[in-house]
Amino acid sequence: FSVGRNSDALNRLKPMNQHRRALWDRRFWYIKRRGEQCMYKVLLVDDEPIIVEGLSRSIPWERWNCRVVATANDGTEGKNLIEKERPDIVFMDICMPEMNGLQMIAALNSQFPDLEVSVLTGYRDFEYAKEAIRLGVTRFLLKPSNMDELEEAIECMCANLNLAHFSRVFKPQL
């Protein structure tokens, strides 16, 4: 369509956008008012038990409406737990016995497209980082990571999940 000085196409478009915005605001207010929040499930996978224990105990998961549902000590166990528990967030190492983290992500990508994954590894090899990015990992963190890096990764993953959740809830009505 053409938009000129005297064209009413622009004027017809403007109220529609205001209407959509009003619908969005009303739905968001309703959900906020009812206190509906998603409780995200977290899975921790690392072959070092001290890392798994440290992550599960030192991070205040409830701050982001998360809870650790399971932990695994190798890639195969992690893959089986992901299929069983269906977590929203996974923190994993790359180099683990039986199946490495990148193989696990590749095997699960098509089955769990909304899964948010952060890699936490001691390997500084650029090829690992490149492959992780290609597989859609949210964050690639190097051990030892400080609490700020971990919290930023959790915040980012939860924001991605919130966005996906709200777009699914509101999309049919817009």
Characterise the protein shown here.
- The chain is of the alpha/beta class and 174 residues long.
- It is built from six helices and five strands; from the N terminus they run αβαβαβαβαβα.
- A five-stranded parallel sheet has the order 2-1-3-4-5, sandwiched between helices.
- Helix 3 runs parallel beside helix 4.
- The two termini are 22 Å apart.
Write the layout of secondary structure elements.
Blueprint: H1 9-34, E1 40-45, H2 49-58, E2 66-72, H3 75-85, E3 89-92, H4 101-108, E4 116-121, H5 126-134, E5 139-142, H6 147-170
Parallel strand pairs: 1-2, 1-3, 3-4, 4-5
Helix pairs in contact: 3-4
List the defining traits of the structure above.
5 strands, 174 residues, 5-stranded parallel beta sheet, 6 helices, disordered N terminus, 51% helix, alpha/beta
Order of helices and strands: HEHEHEHEHEH
| Strand order across the largest sheet | 2-1-3-4-5
Instruction: Give the % helix.
Output: 40-55%
Overall structural class, as computed from helix and strand content, comes to: alpha/beta
Strand content: 15-25%
Tell me the major beta sheet.
5 strands, parallel
Shape: globular
Uncertain spans, ≥5 residues at pLDDT below 50?
A: 1-17, 21-34
The count of strands amounts to 5
Give the termini distance in whole angstroms: 22 Å
How many helices?
6
Radius of gyration: 21 Å
Mean pLDDT: 80
Can you summarize this structure?
It is built from six helices and five strands. The protein has helices at 9-34, 49-58, 75-85, 101-108, 126-134, 147-170; strands spanning 40-45, 66-72, 89-92, 116-121, 139-142. It has a five-stranded parallel sheet with strand order 2-1-3-4-5, with helices on both faces.
